[in-house]
User: Which sequence fits this backbone?
């Protein structure tokens, strides 16, 4: 079974693309890493991220055991290398195939996408500033796909190759 990991800055389109892939591929489970760290108010420290990683890996393992599930798509903003490596290590121990990508885009596209997604509670000026600042980090990661001028289905096709 394959696990597709989609990483990237907030607002780049991870959830949109991940849901598109899961909705267009029978037997695909969708996991949003934010579900596994849903604490109010939000606290993103080492303890809570470690808990979220454990939650994510348990969900992946449960889907792995399900005869109906053929593929898993995990979307999550992993801006700490140790978080990403912990996820990769855990999936590897489950003996599953991994396809990992980082979605990026230019600042203008990030701002446009941000403005068009006012339904998300995280779309505040404070989080926008953080997301813009993170673009250089995510752009430095391997397996990145610049989604600036690409359609959702084109990005999905590139991920599924």
Assistant:
């Amino acid at each position: 079974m394959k696990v597709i990991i989609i990483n990237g800055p907030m607002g780049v389109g991870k959830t949109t693309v991940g849901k598109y892939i899961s909705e267009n591929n029978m037997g695909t489970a969708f996991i949003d890493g934010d579900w596994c760290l849903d604490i109010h108010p939000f606290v993103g420290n080492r303890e809570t991220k470690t808990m979220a990683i454990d939650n994510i890996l348990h969900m992946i393992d449960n889907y792995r055991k399900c005869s109906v599930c053929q593929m898993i798509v995990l979307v999550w903003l992993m801006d700490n290398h140790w978080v990403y490596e912990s996820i990769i290590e855990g999936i590897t121990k489950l003996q599953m195939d991994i396809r990992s990508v980082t979605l990026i885009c230019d600042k203008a596209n990030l701002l446009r996408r941000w403005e068009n997604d006012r339904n998300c509670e995280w779309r505040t000026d404070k989080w926008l500033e953080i997301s813009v600042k993170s673009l250089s980090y995510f752009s430095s990661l391997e397996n990145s796909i610049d989604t600036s001028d690409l359609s959702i289905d084109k990005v999905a096709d590139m991920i599924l190759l």
